[in-house]
Amino acid sequence: MVLFVREKSVNSMEFSDFFNIICSYMANPEDKKSNKQGRSEFLISLIDLMIRTPQTEVEDQMAADGELNPLSDKESDTISKYCSGSRKIPKAVAKEILKRISSGKSFIEKIDFAAPGAKESIRDEIRKQGFDVTSDSLGKICFDLMKAFLKKFTEGKSSVTASDMVDNQNDVTQYRLAEDVGWKCPLCGQELSRDGINKAVAGYDIVHIFPDNLKLKDKSKFSTIKKAPEKSDVLDNRIPLCLSCANFYLENPTLENYQSLVNVKKSISNQRYLAKGLNQLTLEKDLIKVIKGLKVIKPDINDMFISYDAHKVEDKISSDYTLQGTVKYYVMGYYNKIRDEFSNMAGNSFYFDDLAATMKLAYIKLKREKLSQGEIFNQLANWILNKENLENEYLEAARIIVAFFVQNCEVFEVENAK
Ligand SMILES: [Zn+2]
Fold this sequence. Notes:
This protein has 418 residues and is mainly alpha-helical. It folds into three domains: 7-163, no CATH class; 167-271, no CATH class; 287-407, no CATH class. It is built from 18 helices and four strands.
């Protein structure tokens, strides 16, 4: 005997399941599950939200006659069957709707501006079905799902799979946003996991930084920190949070958290701006040899008499004592050795003066951004690592190189110099 097991395929959803989710959390209480007519009317209202405003005289007339929405002249009993899945929306009806589909603004706003608890529930239910959706993309994904269902109906089908919804651009954006925060939740520091409920769904959520559902008086308070963007889904207004922080922020956005998220975003964009400025500079490619070589050089910690004639480190770093101590140690241990190394390399396509000028320019660019000395020092070391494509294990060596240029007067100036 052969047993046929009908398995519900993973990452696919029936229209009736999707409709149930939206209806359960969005319809007025009297329109909910038990009430067939209420559910039918809710479906009609969803389709209304998806149809664009009339654009031709014919459409004008149709709108006046209440015929623009092809569901409006159907029996409530029939529509209720579409809702429950016992009947599919007919191909011709689905085609009619798709023909008049709008950009989705009204539909998307209806979802995005729903009560936070409702949004959270809809998001979770859709994720449970294996679809990757984040709080900030909820309205858009629901609209895209509705369109995908209508398209399936035109083919005589009624379910949509996650792969129907693949949006590479969206994936890339999500990845980039997570990269920006270093795959750590900006509010609690927890690692953002790449895998969530299943492989298709991320274990984090992307939220709108300026909350969607604020009351008017809260809106003005939040605006004093930073105004709401004109379009809520601009990249600058989106940030990934761990699921629990995302839920919390969605339900209870505090000014304090808003301020932190604004700060994080600001520092990310500063970083990017700085990186752009520094990327234009090129480093001498032979520098990499010196950096790698530093790993095997033993520092001269006893060489107190450094054979150079220049200002002391203390003259250039006078208030940040930890940085001063670090740089002094590096200079003491390595300055002479690095200088010898550079002079040995001179002539063979290595130009020390070019390297020194580039370091100076990089320093000037960072200084212009009003970073602290410690920040400038770290930025320069990281920049060298990135430029030379080196692993993090060379970070210390890169810092030693920066210290060399502090001593050599390209990085930092003598304070109170006359
Ligand atoms: Zn968190």
